[in-house]
Amino acid sequence: MLTITDFIRILQNFYNSPNRKMEELEDHRLETWRTVLKDEARPLISIRPDESLYVAIRSLIHHKIHRLPVIDPATGNVLYIVTHKRILKFLYLYINELPKPSILHKSLKDMDIGTYNNIETAREDTLIIEALNKFVERRISALPIVDADGKLV
Hints:
The chain has 5 helices and 4 strands; from the N terminus they run αααββαβαβ. Helices cover about 35% and strands about 10% of the residues. A two-stranded antiparallel sheet has the order 1-2. The protein has a two-stranded parallel sheet with strand order 3-4. The longest helix has 13 residues, at about 5-15. AMPK is a heterotrimer of an alpha catalytic subunit (PRKAA1 or PRKAA2), a beta (PRKAB1 or PRKAB2) and a gamma non-catalytic subunits (PRKAG1, PRKAG2 or PRKAG3). Interacts with FNIP1 and FNIP2. Keywords: CBS domain, Kinase, Repeat, Transferase.
């Protein structure tokens, strides 16, 4: 699967190669970059359509991935892709039909859910390539933009 992280790595490769021009990117094909990025490639993690919601969630968390393709075992075709967002939406839509554990009434802070330390940020004058590097190096998908006082802008 081609991910945003892969695309960022492609852009980094062009940026860090003085002999390459960004215009060349228009002529490249995905097969070229599969070869270039092969050393950084992670194995494809997938599940079958008969797997449980629990197995899907466990796979996403255990493998630290955001997207989980569901593969037809007979054809090898991707049937659909499960994401954290889709699972949360499903749980929200069906929350009234599910047993409600008391933990749902606790605050996020009390349950220590979230990133509380070392939150990566950027300033408005941060170079794009620096922001892209932060995405890849810190394995994050969002970067709060803050002013000189650390306030979100």
